[in-house]
């Protein structure tokens, strides 16, 4: 087992990793930018190293500075968390070259699954259903027009190196192809440094359901059930839950087996998520694979009693994969608490937190790096906490989440807590009847209500 791990991240995920390391008897090193000097992950780690100013490219994305911090503190391994360098194949490769274990998949694996066009090809080879689409990157606008005719409208243009909804455009007829292609490729180039696009059939009103997998890197893998991430706004997840209210035992078996087969075939190492779209007839299609821990991993932990961070570390250290029959008990829901104002189009709300009261009670969990007096920086993602509740069934979980949201008091900045409270009261959410576009087409936030 490792003696010391550096966490190449910030915020709640850095704190989450530090906690598991402490329970395992592993020393931790935090890295931080000048904007995060007062963050809790800096205070709770055994050691902390400042790696640069607030902008991510000069700190958390600066590979030489992260590596230097690992070397001067004699860290044996680096856990990248999610975001930043978590899916950066070059970072994984450089860690290996410096005899530092990257807690995650190999560089080749990240490249193979991180590029969406290549990932589709890999899934197709291994018998995983994929959405009908282009066989690779589209060479031109004319190529896109030909593929759209072959696939059939509507289609979706997607950035091959993308994420978070950037570089994506729905095209419903031929006259829209040229403009959509140009704008999507420009957005992809600006956001990811890669203008490549591919095309898929657009599935109307689908569910977004993902399967959590763990692989030992030697050809063995397991899955830990599904998470429903259909409650999204502008392709960003808002609420996640496990299990999915749309799932059947037979569908879980088929999706889980498809995910395991894929992970085994590519000899995946560590924690990963295979994401699917599920249509109204319960047909499922591979969408993408995230080669890292997910923001929403706590709901899986709550219903399976499985510490995913600990499992990542154990696998990276060469310990055997812990296999046990899947038992999903009860229901868990996670709300992402963001520093943003839902009354003004979710405008980010940086600044000092004057009051911070987290909810408590039975089966209520809060993962956060914030506290009263903490100053939310404007440089990073707006998420400041994750509120997770569990209960014997979904109805009780929704009721518990609503109660917990009312107890969650954050003053000094605006948050999306009122938005979440109204969602808990929404009849369709309460019944489990929703899809990935539900928040944009069928739900309206009332700022005067709370």
**What gross morphology would you assign?**
globular
The CATH architecture designation of the largest domain is 2-Layer Sandwich
The largest β sheet comes out as: 8 strands, antiparallel
Mean residue pLDDT? 95
For the largest beta sheet, what order do the strands appear in spatially?
13-12-9-10-11-14-21-19
CATH superfamily of the largest domain: ATP-grasp fold, B domain
Task: Summarize the helices and strands and which ones pair or pack.
Elements: E1 4-7, H1 11-23, E2 27-33, H2 40-44, E3 47-52, H3 63-72, E4 77-79, H4 89-97, E5 101-102, H5 107-114, H6 116-125, H7 141-151, E6 155-159, E7 168-171, H8 177-192, E8 197-201, E9 207-216, E10 221-233, E11 236-242, H9 249-265, E12 269-278, E13 284-290, H10 297-304, H11 308-316, E14 331-338, E15 340-341, E16 347-348, E17 351-352, E18 355-357, E19 364-368, E20 375-376, E21 383-391, H12 394-407, E22 409-411, H13 417-425, H14 427-431, H15 438-441
Parallel strand pairs: 1-2, 1-4, 2-3, 4-5
Antiparallel strand pairs: 6-7, 6-8, 9-10, 9-12, 10-11, 11-14, 12-13, 14-21, 15-16, 17-20, 18-22, 19-21
Helix pairs in contact: 4-5, 7-8, 12-13
What does this protein structure show overall?
This protein has 450 residues and is of the alpha+beta class. It folds into 3 domains: 4-103, Rossmann fold (3-Layer(aba) Sandwich), CATH 3.40.50.20; 132-201, ATP-grasp fold, A domain (Dna Ligase, domain 1, 2-Layer Sandwich), CATH 3.30.1490.20; 207-441, ATP-grasp fold, B domain (D-amino Acid Aminotransferase, Chain A, domain 1). It has 15 helices and 22 strands. Helix 4 packs antiparallel against helix 5, helix 7 (141-151) crosses helix 8 and helix 12 (394-407) runs antiparallel to helix 13. The chain is globular. The N and C termini lie far apart (50 Å). The model has no long low-confidence stretch (mean pLDDT 95).
């Amino acid at each position: 087992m490792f003696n010391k791990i550096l966490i190449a991240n910030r915020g709640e995920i850095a704190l989450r990793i530090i906690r598991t390391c402490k329970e395992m008897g592993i020393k931790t090193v935090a890295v931080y930018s000048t904007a995060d000097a007062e963050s809790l992950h800096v205070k709770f780690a055994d050691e902390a190293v400042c790696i640069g100013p607030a902008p991510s490219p000069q700190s958390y994305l600066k590979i030489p500075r992260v590596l230097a911090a690992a070397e001067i503190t004699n860290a044996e391994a680096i856990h990248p968390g999610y975001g930043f360098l978590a899916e950066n194949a070059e970072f994984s490769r450089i860690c290996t070259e410096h005899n530092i274990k990257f807690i995650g998949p190999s560089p080749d694996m990240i490249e193979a699954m991180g590029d969406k066009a290549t990932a589709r090809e890999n899934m197709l080879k291994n018998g995983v259903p994929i959405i009908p689409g282009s066989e690779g990157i589209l060479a031109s606008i004319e190529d896109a027009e030909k593929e759209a005719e072959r696939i059939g409208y509507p289609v979706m243009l997607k950035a091959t190196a993308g994420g978070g909804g950037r570089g994506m455009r729905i095209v419903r007829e031929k006259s829209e192809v040229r403009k959509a292609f140009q704008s999507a490729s420009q957005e992809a180039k600006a956001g990811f440094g890669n203008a490549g696009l591919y095309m898929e059939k657009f599935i109307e009103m689908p569910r977004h359901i993902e399967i959590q997998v763990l692989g030992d890197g030697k050809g063995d893998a397991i899955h830990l059930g599904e998470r429903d991430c259909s409650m999204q706004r502008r392709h960003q997840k808002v609420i996640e839950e496990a299990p999915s209210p749309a799932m059947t035992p037979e569908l879980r078996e088929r999706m889980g087996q498809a995910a395991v087969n894929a992970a085994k075939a590519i000899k995946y190492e560590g924690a990963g998520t295979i994401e699917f779209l599920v249509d109204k007839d319960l047909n499922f299609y591979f969408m993408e694979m995230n080669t890292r821990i997910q923001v929403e991993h706590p709901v899986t932990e709550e219903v399976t009693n499985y510490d995913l961070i600990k499992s990542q570390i154990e696998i990276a250290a060469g310990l055997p994969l812990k296999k046990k029959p899947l038992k999903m008990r009860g229901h868990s829901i996670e709300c992402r608490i963001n520093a943003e104002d839902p009354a003004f189009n979710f405008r980010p709300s940086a600044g000092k937190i004057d009051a911070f009261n987290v909810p408590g009670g039975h089966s209520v969990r809060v993962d956060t790096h914030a506290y009263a007096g903490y100053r939310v920086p404007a440089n990073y993602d707006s998420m400041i906490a994750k509120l997770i509740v569990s209960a014997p069934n979904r109805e009780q979980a929704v009721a518990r989440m609503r109660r917990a949201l009312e107890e969650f008091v954050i003053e000094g900045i605006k948050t999306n807590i009122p938005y979440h409270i109204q969602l808990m009261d929404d009849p369709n959410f309460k019944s489990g009847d929703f899809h990935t576009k539900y928040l944009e087409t069928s739900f309206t936030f009332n700022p005067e209500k709370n």
